[in-house]
Amino acid sequence: MFDHLLSDKAKAFREEVRDLVKWVPRQMILDMDQDRIQFPKAFLKEAGRRNLMGCRYPRKWGGREMDWVTTAMAMEEVGTLGYIFACIFGVGAELVCDAIIRHGSDDLKEKYVKPLLKGEIFAAECLTEPRGGSDFFGTTTTAVEDGDHFIINGQKRFIVGAEGADFFLVYAKTAPDAKPHEALTCFIVDRGAGVETKYLYGLMGCRGGGAGRIVFKDVRVSRTNVVGDINGAYAVFNTMMIPERLGTAAMTIGAARPALEVATSYSSRRKAFGAPINTFQGVGFQVAEAAMLLDASCAMVYATCTAVDHGESPGTIRRMVSQTKKFVTESCQRVAHNAMQVMGGIGYTNVFSVERIVRDLRLASIWTGTNEVMSMIIANEWYRSHSRRKVDAQTRNWELDAAQANAVDEKIYE
């Protein structure tokens, strides 16, 4: 966390979020990790009561009209409780709300966003299916028109909040013969007849978030519950990738930070060969690397947040968000790895929280788009921007800054 990047208003809000973090009972964290709590409604109710969720949305709908930098700060602070706390905090307050705020009707905002941000109801985003996750446009869940309603059938899996959500943001195929980007529609589906949480997953980490498989069987959904346009889910999906992936990066920093703090404290007190182990380069250098990676991650997150706040071009935002998600998640996994390595065998036990943090952070480079997908996006957007720069001719032609730059017979490309 870089204080110099935060306004006084953001710093004051940070204290409010930290008060929420202090409020969370230790037993809640332990019970969630053991799946004794399957979905922490009490935590979300308290966050809503304190008006801490969806801080960048209009006050009219329950937000506080703040910016992305402040949002990232809040996600980072919540993440210090554990990765799953930030996951369930972000899914409802950032992902689902973002879709409705940006693309939904005022009636939907009144009905769903306001009570959601108050912590009165809970939401989940339904994107991944049993047949695959990264191939979003290959969705097999269908929605067939039936008068003023749609009939939805299909399954979604790995849905954070499946167990506790009152409603779901669901993508379904409404035009099976259309091009992939013009075939899907986004719906709000209330939990009710035909909606079943079929299976809860035994996860390696990030437990307690009610992650499960949801089955939709002949679910009737009113046309008024369409988010955006019919067959226009691509626009919703496109905007949601910013809060989904940028939020993931921010909360990953928060989840990794306690591992470094615990390892730093341990290595300052633990002695071997008659001296504290932090005096040995094998330990100190690993802590130094972890601190460097955390700071670099912070710099990247807040630079990207500033770009979003300033309205950079969609291609630039798409690349920066993907870079940030990939770099930060991989860096923070390294931070947790170094923390455990510094602590040795005791770090591999539940005597310290580092063991849980390592398990939790393994999810970071998988969900909200795998890091391999992030690399594809980064490469595509970089080459597009490179082509534009060549056309614009606004930069120096560095290719000519070579002694034999005019040796055209040597420049063979085919």
Characterization of the model:
The protein is built from eleven helices and ten strands. The protein has 414 residues and is of the alpha+beta class. The protein has a four-stranded mixed sheet. The chain has a four-stranded antiparallel sheet with strand order 2-3-7-6, with no helix packed on it. The longest helix has 37 residues, at 233-269. The radius of gyration is 23 Å and the shape is globular. The model has no long low-confidence stretch (mean pLDDT 95).
SSE inventory with pairings:
Layout: H1 8-23, H2 26-33, H3 41-49, H4 68-79, H5 83-103, H6 106-117, E1 123-126, E2 142-146, E3 149-159, E4 167-173, E5 184-190, E6 195-200, E7 212-222, E8 226-227, H7 233-269, E9 271-272, E10 275-276, H8 281-309, H9 314-343, H10 354-361, H11 371-392
Parallel strand pairs: 1-4
Antiparallel strand pairs: 2-3, 3-7, 4-5, 5-8, 6-7, 9-10
Helix pairs in contact: 1-4, 4-5, 4-7, 5-6, 5-7, 7-8, 7-9, 7-10, 8-9, 9-10, 9-11
Q: Please mark out the parts with pLDDT under 50 across 5 or more consecutive residues, or reply none.
A: none
Approximate shape: globular
> Strand percentage, roughly?
5-15%
* Distance between the ends: 49 Å
- Which oligomeric form is depicted? single chain
- Number of helices in the DSSP assignment: 11
**How many strands, what sense, and barrel or not for the largest sheet?**
4 strands, mixed
Radius of gyration: 23 Å
